[in-house]
User: Fold this.
Amino acid sequence: MLERLRPRPVPKIQESAYDSGILHGLALPSAKPNNVAMMPSPQAGANLPHSNATKLMLIAILAEFFCLRANDAAELLRGRAITESDARSVRRTLSILHRDGFLYRAPYFDSGRDRGGVSYVYGLSAKGVAHAFRNGYSTSATKTLDEHSLRTLDHELEITWFHVALDRLCSAKGLRYLWRQKDLKHTVHPDALFYVADPANPGKAFCYFLEIERAKLGNYRNGEPQILRKLRRYYDYFNSTGCEKEWGFRQYRVVVVQRTDARREGLLTALRKTCSHRMFWLTTEAAYREDIGGAIFKTPKDDAPMAFSFLTD
Assistant:
């Protein structure tokens, strides 16, 4: 990942900008950021059996980041590289929250583990979501880990890992950001919508749609693969009245994350023929995980090897 985790004694909980209707899209610079630390209130343990700070913070973390493996949750909770003792403690607490009905969990085969390989992915249940909303630390990513999400765990986890990487970048660089991961079905249907702004340069703030694309080019229709049909909708939608009505802004960038450099180059070549525009920012899973703040994005508008970043655009 980008860097050592910063100390995180409490989870960062999004303020009430969404609840008050300030953000229809995410574009307003006056909106409050979600990278602001807030402690769950003392009353947040209501109806939570044998409540303690760790339980509350884990529910709050999952209200912010949707789904996590146990070690991911432990790193966010501890704010540092975790020990085996940290991991055991957090796994135990997550299991208790699952037993008490606040979390769902699903088995997940983790190819990156040296031993075993099967772990669990955790997310809030309906009871956990209700608890987060009732106690004031819900976010625009707070939703249940439902059956659809369980069928696409790799995809959902990749969205979360991008969110965590963006969160760390913004925290380290003093950037404001907002993240939305539900109520996204409009003319375009992204995996997430986010906004990044530098308080020192508010005029450069921008909204981004996120698309995690793990499949190869396929599902052709009239000679065009599914991913190109999807990205063409963004191309036609750009700077339109319809976009403004549905999202509250007209211009945006589309961050497309692909598995390999080869797939990215193939998609860049295809986009140059019909959708040559700098709205499309293509990167790879390895690139953003290593340094999401680096010049890791390429666009189909630039034939030369010209790269962009959140920090220099």
